[in-house]
Amino acid sequence: MREFFRQIDLSVRIVCLAAYLGLLPSQAFAHELLTFDGTAGGEQLTVLAKSKLEIWRPDEMVSEKGSIPAGRALRLSGEAGSGFVTKSKALGEVDWRKSGTLAFWVHRSAEEAKEHPAVSLDVHLIEEDRKAYFWRKLEVSHFGWKKIEMPLDWFRWSNSRIPRWDKVRSLAFLLRESATL
């Protein structure tokens, strides 16, 4: 199965929002986990078969709420089942039980949104042995930039066994149908 994977380093920003004892809004303690710009160290990206992943800077800078992320982004194109998995030392250092939300930015062009009005993908937080994971389906129907915030309490368990937050070491984005994000 190794022949279906290839390793590359790219630039993307993924943020874990941690709430301090649940007393304050989760955004008060945002911590950037993955950057893929060489500053955090130890990031490894695996692109799945039938996937195209590229470093990209969108031409349009549109957001529903005004602010947008700076720098470059990852652009994922592929068929159903395609996507990428990232493994990082930073993911293992997070106390996921105290974290409230996983947040990241998604960009869709107006053309893509017109061609595919709604796109579904799965977000997985995977244990180190890859035998169990937390997951959540996400439907994307906007165009331009949008910050996605996914409460960790809404993630489901994989069917193999009950996953443990303290064992999470990887994050995956998997398309459910053909799309470009």
Total number of helices: 2
Structural class: mainly beta
**Overall 3D geometry?**
globular
| Separation, N- and C-terminal Cα atoms | 25 Å
Number of strands: 14
Work out the oligomeric state of the chains in this entry. single chain
Summarize the structure.
This protein has 181 residues and is mainly β.
Walk me through the topology.
Elements: E1 6-8, E2 14-18, E3 30-34, E4 44-47, E5 51-56, E6 73-78, E7 83-87, H1 89-93, E8 99-108, H2 110-115, E9 119-127, E10 133-140, E11 144-151, E12 156-157, E13 168-175, E14 179-180
Antiparallel strand pairs: 1-4, 2-3, 2-8, 4-7, 5-6, 6-14, 7-13, 8-11, 9-10, 9-13, 10-12
Keywords:
181 residues; disordered N terminus; 2 helices; 7-stranded antiparallel beta sheet; single chain; 4-stranded antiparallel beta sheet
Account of the protein in words:
This protein has a 7-stranded antiparallel sheet. It has a 4-stranded antiparallel sheet with strand order 3-2-8-11. The protein is globular. The longest helix is centred in the middle third of the chain and has 6 residues. The chain is built from 2 helices and 14 strands, in the order βββββββαβαββββββ. Strand 9 and strand 10 form a beta hairpin. The protein has 181 residues and is mainly beta. 6% of the residues lie in helices and 45% in strands.
